[in-house]
Backbone:
């Protein structure tokens, strides 16, 4: 019974998704400009690259930059508004969780924004659900191509052979360390460990001074991210290349998880800590090392008394690798296409992409090469340090509904670190559940 | 609540009410009058409760994502999957039902008994009574987000004030309040009792004020102890209120969401992931609204059965 209904739904799915693809194509063309879908609609006003000279339009811009980074984005928007008298961008900031829940309903009811930011792992899901429109035409009209961007975040914006997102930044995991604590334990704060041997020696030295050197958190931030980085360092991957099955329960995954849980077992971390305790401990001088996102730079800078440093992740597993996320610009589907707004949105997108140095000050690595390689960015010492990892970064694959499967990974981390299950069992069971979810998603999103 | 508190007085004043009722009935003769008064609420009830409830059944028979153009009809597949151990949703769903059951069984006795004791105490006459009534009711006016975040910080095993105080008085202070069992359940039950104690206490207080002082007077003249007065006057006098409180508290506990979502984040493992968390995540983050709707109906059936048992056990014995 389930089988027949499965094939039935798949067939009807194909039919409907073909129809939908056609409407999306139409929407893209209507939204892009009067021209045919894609490219040469250099359109009235040059499709954004050469500005917008139509009547005054107001654009809504939604994002979830509720932290310190929001101020930098606001500054950028204000500058854009003053330089473009006929475009008024109003920025609406909300919690990411609320934003992702709100955006689809807003788009279907015709109250969606013209521009939005999305995390790279949400792009595919929202593309499949037609919350956002393809932006191949934008990339072409604005003359953006892979050569302008770091290849990984650039490729991550592609879903089903169409581009849905233009990368703004990448935010990799980095290795943060408390210099005062290192000094207290007799370690050289200017020479943080770079490989497994040095790392373990440093942890043992800290332990001999009664310091638990690296707190292992069972929560996604940043336990899940840390073990993902380790998994890639040990040569594994989260999913098979076509993202149809979870491969994290293989040897490299078990090695990564065991390394992490051993921090607890070997006395380098207290047991059963709660969310963020690892990062608080770094700031309080209770621990020396913490693997955290680049967004932590500004949080740490706010504590003037804190002596801290940041380095690329130490190479524990043998291959340099780090987890990264990426903020991407997307253009939500417009219920009623408006040519002026579409062009103006593209102008904004191109402008802000070029100005992403300002954004880097908010604690991110610009995705755009010319900005990332500029002397101004290199002057941002901490960000530039983490940017050196750019070619070793790994992202969650751009597959619709991938977050549903990643939730199982998070559960495995939680169970392993809290000692509820041993790493192999936790990972295998999570992989089984994830495989079922991946199969269900394939059926759902086609 | 209005119903239950009115009941005891209703029987007392019933005889004298018939006359004015007739008089007013004569003035506003229309038979439609009572229904017109009920209409505004009926509209809301149909629009926001009844219609969605039936629409939900329709959703539960489909692979439903409100944004995807295809919403294939799947019949009862969303329901059968909940009873098929090899399905994606089987384990998460029944784990969440188990968590819901544990929380309900662990919390309801405290949520029913502690406010009762409190209400009896606050019903005595003593200076500052109103102040203390307000104090115990105060947490209830706070939203779940506020109390959730607050306790999340206070119960932090490494840096929370609770462990800090335990350490200060020499009681260890290494309790994993939110990251290990049974502590996580203890924390959630304690926080919920602290948060909602005032609500049930206020209902009890209303019920207590309906028990005539002359009954206690008569009992004390007959030599009844405080305990006997409580057992044979207070408890029977509160019967309708008690039944109401137990029913509503069971339903509220079975619908627990915010505390576990914010304080323990469903953990450790998935041990405090309640049915409502599971349903919400499946419906609103995975966009599997058909499956989520089916889960809701199974949960509703369970709650219906529990309520029936409850009514059966507390029925008026002939």
Residues:
């Amino acid at each position: 019974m389930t089988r027949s209904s499965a094939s039935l739904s798949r067939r009807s799915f194909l039919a409907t998704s073909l129809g939908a693809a056609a409407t999306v194509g139409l929407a893209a063309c209507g939204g892009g400009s009067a021209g045919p879908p894609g490219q040469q609609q250099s359109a009235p006003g040059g499709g954004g690259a050469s500005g917008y000279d139509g009547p005054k339009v107001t654009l809504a811009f939604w994002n979830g930059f509720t932290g310190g980074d929001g101020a930098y984005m606001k500054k950028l928007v204000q500058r854009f508004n003053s330089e473009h008298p006929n475009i008024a961008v109003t920025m609406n900031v909300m919690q990411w969780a609320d934003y992702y829940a709100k955006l689809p309903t807003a788009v279907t009811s015709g109250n969606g924004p013209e521009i939005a930011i999305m995390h790279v792992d949400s792009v595919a899901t929202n593309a499949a659900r037609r919350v956002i429109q393809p932006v191949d035409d934008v990339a072409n009209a604005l003359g953006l191509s892979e050569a302008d961007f770091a290849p990984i975040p650039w490729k991550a914006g592609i879903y089903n052979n169409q581009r849905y997102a233009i990368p703004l930044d990448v935010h990799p995991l980095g290795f943060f360390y408390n210099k005062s604590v290192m000094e207290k334990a007799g370690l050289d704060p200017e020479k943080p460990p770079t490989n497994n041997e040095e790392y373990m020696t440093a942890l043992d030295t800290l332990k001999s001074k009664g310091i638990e050197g690296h707190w292992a958190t069972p929560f996604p931030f940043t336990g899940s991210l840390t073990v993902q980085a380790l998994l890639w360092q040990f040569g594994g991957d989260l999913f098979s290349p076509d993202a149809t099955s979870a491969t994290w329960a293989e040897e490299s995954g078990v090695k990564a998880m065991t390394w992490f849980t051993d921090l607890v077992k070997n006395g380098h971390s207290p047991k059963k800590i709660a969310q963020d305790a690892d990062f608080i401990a770094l700031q309080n001088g209770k621990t020396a090392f913490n693997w955290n996102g680049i967004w932590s730079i500004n949080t740490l800078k706010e504590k003037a008394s804190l002596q801290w440093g940041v380095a690329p992740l130490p190479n524990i597993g043998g291959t340099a690798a780090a987890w990264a996320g990426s903020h991407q610009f997307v253009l939500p589907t417009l219920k009623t296409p408006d040519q002026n707004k579409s062009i103006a949105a593209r102008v904004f997108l191109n402008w802000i992409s070029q100005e992403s140095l300002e954004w880097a000050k908010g604690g991110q690595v610009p995705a755009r090469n010319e900005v990332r390689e500029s002397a101004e960015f290199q002057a941002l010492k901490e960000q530039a340090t983490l940017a050196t990892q750019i070619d070793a970064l790994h992202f969650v694959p751009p597959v619709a509904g991938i977050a549903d499967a990643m939730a199982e990974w998070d559960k495995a981390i939680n169970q392993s670190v809290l000692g509820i299950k041993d790493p192999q069992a936790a990972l295998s069971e999570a992989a089984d559940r994830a495989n079922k979810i991946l199969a269900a998603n394939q059926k759902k999103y086609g | 609540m209005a119903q239950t508190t009115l009941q005891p007085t209703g029987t007392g004043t019933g005889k004298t009410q018939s006359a004015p009722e007739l008089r007013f009935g004569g003035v506003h003769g229309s038979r439609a009058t009572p229904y017109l008064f009920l209409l505004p609420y009926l509209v809301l009830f149909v629009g926001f409760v009844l219609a969605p409830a039936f629409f939900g059944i329709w959703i539960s028979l489909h692979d439903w994502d409100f944004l995807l153009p295809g919403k294939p009809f799947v019949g009862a597949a969303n329901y059968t999957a909940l009873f098929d151990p090899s399905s994606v949703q089987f384990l998460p769903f029944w784990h969440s039902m188990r968590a819901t059951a544990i929380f309900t069984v662990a919390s309801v006795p405290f949520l029913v008994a502690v406010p009762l004791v409190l209400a009896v105490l606050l019903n005595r006459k003593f200076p500052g009574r109103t102040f203390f009534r307000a104090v115990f009711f105060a947490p209830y006016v706070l939203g779940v987000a506020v109390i959730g975040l607050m306790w999340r910080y206070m119960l932090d095993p490494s840096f929370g004030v609770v462990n800090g105080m335990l350490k200060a008085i020499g009681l260890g202070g290494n309790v994993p309040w939110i990251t290990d069992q049974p502590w996580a359940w203890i924390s959630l039950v304690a926080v919920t009792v602290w948060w909602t104690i005032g609500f049930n206490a206020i209902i009890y207080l209303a019920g207590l004020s309906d028990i005539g002082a002359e009954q206690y007077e008569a009992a004390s003249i007959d030599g009844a102890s405080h305990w006997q007065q409580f057992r044979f006057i207070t408890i029977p006098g509160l019967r309708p209120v008690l039944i109401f409180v137990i029913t509503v508290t069971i339903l509220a506990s079975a619908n627990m969401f915010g505390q576990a979502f914010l304080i323990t984040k469903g953990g450790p493992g998935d041990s405090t992931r309640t049915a409502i968390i599971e349903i919400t995540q499946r419906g609103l983050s995975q966009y599997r609204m058909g499956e989520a709707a089916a889960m809701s109906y199974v949960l509703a059936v369970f709650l219906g059965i529990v309520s029936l048992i409850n009514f059966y056990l507390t029925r008026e014995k002939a």
